[in-house]
Request: fold
Amino acid sequence: MAPIASSAPCTAATLTTMRNPPPTCTATPTILLVDDDAFNREGMRLYLEQEGFAILEAGDAATAWQMLDASETGAPAADAAVIDISLPAEPGQKAQPNYSVGIQLAGRIKDVDPAFGIVLFSAYEDRGAEVLELIQVGRRGIAYKLKGCQPAALLAALRGVMAGQVIIDPEVTNVHSLADRLAQCLAPDERAYVEAAVGLLAQLTPREREVADRVAAAHSNEGIARALAIEPKSVENYVSRIYDKLGLNDIPRDLRKVVLLAKACMIFDLRGQRR
Reply:
C-alpha cells in the first residue's frame, strides 16, 4: 500500500489535549473534513456549520496530519474527522483508488490518540477487510459509511464516534460477517471473558452504556465527566459497576479490563447493526 507522508510529528501529548480540554473550555466542536473533492467538502461544511460545528478542511493525508497538531496556544485542532478512504497522500498528487490512504491516516491518528472520533467514507468499494484490521484490536470511535449518505446519517455518525461508538454501514460492507470475523480474531485467553461480556451488555442501563462506550474508546474519566455533565467520582462508580456487571473485575493479571470491554462493545455493536 502507498504510505502516507510522515510530515511534521504529531505527538501523543498534543493529540491527548483534544480529549482533555481545560474545564472552562466551551469551544464549538471542530470537525476536520479530509477529501480531495472540494465540492464534497463544501457540501459537508455548509451542513455541519448549520449544525453548530466549526470546520477545518484538507485535501490530502499529509495536510490533514499537519492540521491535527495543536496551535501555539495549546488549543485542540479538532474533535473528530470525516475522512475519504481514497485520498492523495500529499498535496499535488492524485488519489489512487487501489490504495486506502484514508484508512492508513485513520490508523495513524488512532495510534496517537485512540479517543479521536473518525468517520470513514467509501465511494463504492467494500473495504470491510481493511476496516476490520483497524477495529479488531479494540479501537472504537470509528464509523464506516457510504459516501453520499443522507446528511442526517453523517451527523449521527459524527456524534456517535465522538461518544466512542462503532458504526458500520451495512450498505458498504457485510456487518454480519464483520462481527463474526472480529469474534474469531479473539485470543484464546480472552475469548470466554469477551463473549460473556457481550451477552451481558444488554443489562447495562442507558447511562452505564454511555460510560462504557467512552471508557472503551479510551476517553479519560475527566473527559467523560465533562461530556456527560456528571462528577468524576460518579464516573469512577459507573466504571466499577460496569466491570462488575460484565464479569470483568475478576480476570487474569495479564489481561486488561478496558481492552476486553472495548472488544465486547465492538462485537455487540456490530451484531446490533445487522440488517
